[in-house]
Amino acid sequence: MKLQRLLFILMLGFIFSCSDDDDTSEPVELKDPEEVKDENMLQIEEFLSTHFYRFEDNPQNPNFQNIVFDTIAGDNANEEPIINSEFLESKPVTQQDVEYTLYYLKFREGAESVRQPTFADSVLVTYRGFSLFENQTFDASPNPIWFDLTNNIRGFYEVMDEFRGATSFQENPDGTISFDDNFGIGTVFIPSGIAYYATPPSGSGIAAYEPIVFNIQLYKSKESDHDRDGVPSWMEDINEDRRITNDDSDGDNIPDFADIDDDGDGTLTEDEIEFDAEGNLILPDSNGNGTPDYLDPTFPEDA
Questions:
Q1: 44-96 confidence digits (pLDDT tens)
Q2: Are 297 and 286 a contacting pair, CB within 8 Å?
Q3: Same-domain status, 164 and 132
Q4: Were 167 and a residue from 30, 111, 117, 277 both cysteine, which residue would form a disulfide, CB within 3.0 to 4.6 Å?
Q5: pTM of the full predicted structure?
Q6: Measured distance CA(100)–CA(92) in Å, rounded
Q7: Alpha helices by DSSP H, the chain
Q8: 166, 198, 222: which is the final residue of a domain?
Q9: Range of the domain at 94
Q10: Last residue of some domain: 205, 222, 239?
Q11: Is 22 exposed, middle or buried (0-12, 13-18, 19+ CB in 10 A)?
């Protein structure tokens, strides 16, 4: 079951649970997000301190090496813990006023000449998702698959802009694709607050409030323009919270990234922007009021 399908099932389950008039059970009281965040940090940091990693060949896809995590004990007592790895990095991620620490291993960033994806782009990846506690795989694709990052959990898309894809690829006689050996390789450790929190997908094996882990290889990315209005989707994040589903400039209940007339003035967004000779986007402000034309309902009327 792929990651996007898991998110759909989670959403579907929420809809049914809210629409069941015959359900007389008392609602489950959710834990405090700050408490869960602190609990998850202790769990993740303990994992990083007591485990090490190694790479193993993957017979399903030679391009996609398995990253295996194991406990430092017995024959592995002298292994270096992840917490001391030169590849371990972290970044803050804020959601609903809670600031999380997102740990990730950047084994290889990817080709320097290749663009980094934004949080709203599409990416071509191979991956394995597994639970932190039981190391149980709940989702995986050993072969490259395209993901629209806007349909993925927060912790997944927040790490993707730390990597780059490969410089090129070639199609093999058997129809498979081989990428230059310079694509991005990493692992991300995701707190439940920016994953599935209290309601993991049924049958996934993920416990409520459990952190999850993804091994990821990034081969390629594409800048997304979901509504094809000429403004890239990442630029439609007007409130700059790195989520594009809650930006609705004209209040018509259609997020800007899916709205072909962002300001609702009757003039299409694509007719209120320009491009220079090199194809770079230009956002005119014809009446000089500090708001680009495509977001200004007073233009063209007051221009």
A1: 999 999 999 999 887 776 666 789 999 999 999 999 999 999 999 999 999 99
A2: no
A3: yes
A4: 111
A5: 0.85
A6: 6
A7: 3-19, 33-50, 154-160
A8: 222
A9: 3-222
A10: 222
A11: exposed
